[in-house]
Amino acid sequence: LHLFIFFHLPQPTPTAAMSIQERTYIMVKPDGVQRGLVGNIISRFEQRGFKLIALKLVHATPEHLEKHYADLKGKPFFPGLIKYMASGPVAAMVWEGLDAVKTGRSMLGATNPLASAPGTIRGDFALAVGRNICHGSDSVESAEKEIALWFPEGVVQYNQDQAKWIFE
Ligand code: ADP
Predict the structure, then answer these.
(1) Which residues pair with 21 in a beta bridge?
(2) What's the predicted TM-score (pTM) here?
(3) Helix (H) or strand (E) holding 52
């Protein structure tokens, strides 16, 4: 019986598009968690066709957040940013899919919500740059660093059968 199943399961044909899979670190910030937007934000990434490969709620320490935002150390808003990010739990996620970093950023909207187009997460839910609901990696390189920082335990590997309906 096992042999029968093995030989008769339709295997998705690997294509160029499916092989350019990227990972991005997406985080719902404390204001997004408090305002009950975690589900909405997860839905947007699911519906777009991305695959969720890691997810947890974390109440991060200032030290951890200073590592995450190391590039911004020295900015006048840095202390306030760390305080805001440590003020409650965040929803940490890793999403995988075609062009995940760039597409994730476009789904988030501009850093300043006033400049974010309606239809983006910040353009739909936020007004102030200091309370802009969500984070998304800005390059493949920072995605790798952020995933390692927030998920030292690694991500989850599983087959999701929808890829053949999303990619040619
Ligand atoms: P992004 O989060 O879009 O990658 P940055 O890396 O430039 O943007 O900034 C990180 C975060 O710092 C922003 O998402 C926002 O929460 C906060 N931030 C950026 N600029 C300001 C500002 N002028 N005042 C207050 N907070 C800011």
Answers:
(1) 98
(2) 0.90
(3) strand 51-58
